[in-house]
């Protein structure tokens, strides 16, 4: 049977791990993880080290908080410097040929942060919007999408960031790419039961 470890995060820096065969316990062993930031977003992937699959995990929150867990190193690494004080709400991984090529965090007041392969964070300026941003996802073949308040949908391609017309004014919370038989389907969800779908060849 495959063993699964579940991570959960919340307000005031609370972080829990649910490991196989154990009861939920508060994380221990954080490196400089003494912040009481409200944690708002988490995303992760796996990387292969010496033939063994390991977890690579990021957590974001208030005050520009970003922490990274590298299972290959066996611990939470030093808090990453985001150079931002904005509340960060969501995080996405952009895959590359050799693993993770970029990670993107989004937050309030139109904040979009990007981390390159060298581990350096930078903010997207000028901001494509000043609306609060709540979700970000990568859609292979389409680019990176960011969603947020007032029906905001942003798309990034090789040409840069552009506004997309959602035809709604509610807050959008997240999205995902769904593979159809002959099409690419993008699903976006938001407040008041909002479900948007874009389907292209």
Layout of strands and helices, then pairs:
Elements: E1 6-9, E2 15-18, E3 25-26, E4 39-49, E5 52-61, E6 66-70, E7 75-76, E8 88-96, E9 99-107, E10 112-115, E11 121-123, E12 133-139, E13 143-148, E14 153-157, E15 160-164, E16 172-179, E17 184-190, E18 194-200
Antiparallel strand pairs: 1-2, 2-3, 4-5, 5-6, 6-7, 8-9, 9-10, 10-11, 12-13, 13-14, 14-15, 16-17, 17-18
Order of strands, main sheet, comes to: 4-5-6-7
Low-pLDDT stretches are 24-33
Query: Helix and strand string, N-terminal first?
Result: EEEEEEEEEEEEEEEEEE
How would the global form be characterised?
Answer: globular
Amino-to-carboxy terminus distance: 39 Å
Provide a concise account of the structure shown:
The protein has 201 residues and is mainly beta.
Describe this structure in words.
The chain has 201 residues and is an all-beta fold. 0% of the residues lie in helices and 54% in strands. The chain has strands at residues 6-9, 15-18, 25-26, 39-49, 52-61, 66-70, 75-76, 88-96, 99-107, 112-115, 121-123, 133-139, 143-148, 153-157, 160-164, 172-179, 184-190, 194-200. Strands 4-5-6-7 form a 4-stranded antiparallel beta sheet, with no helix packed on it. A 4-stranded antiparallel beta sheet has the order 8-9-10-11, with no helix packed on it. A hairpin with a 3-residue loop joins strand 17 (184-190) and strand 18 (194-200). The radius of gyration is 17 Å and the shape is globular. Mean pLDDT is 79; it is low at 24-33.
């Amino acid at each position: 049977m495959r063993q699964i470890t579940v991570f959960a995060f919340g307000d005031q820096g609370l972080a829990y791990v649910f490991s196989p065969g154990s009861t939920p316990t508060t994380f221990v062993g954080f490196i400089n993880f003494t912040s009481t930031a409200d944690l708002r977003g988490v995303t992760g992937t796996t990387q292969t080290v010496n033939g063994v699959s390991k977890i690579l995990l990021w957590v974001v929150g208030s005050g520009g908080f970003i922490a990274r867990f590298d299972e290959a190193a066996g611990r939470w690494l030093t808090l990453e410097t985001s150079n931002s004080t904005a509340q960060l709400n969501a995080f996405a991984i952009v895959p590359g040929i050799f693993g993770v090529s970029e990670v993107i965090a989004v937050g309030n007041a139109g904040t979009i942060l990007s981390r390159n392969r060298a581990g350096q964070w930078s903010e997207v300026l000028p901001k494509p919007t000043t609306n609060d941003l709540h979700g970000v996802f990568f859609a292979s073949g389409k680019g990176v999408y960011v969603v947020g308040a007032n029906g905001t949908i942003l798309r990034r391609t090789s040409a840069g960031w552009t506004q997309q017309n959602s035809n709604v004014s509610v807050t959008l919370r997240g999205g995902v790419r769904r593979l159809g038989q002959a099409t690419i389907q993008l699903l976006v969800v938001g407040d008041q039961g909002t479900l948007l779908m874009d389907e292209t060849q």
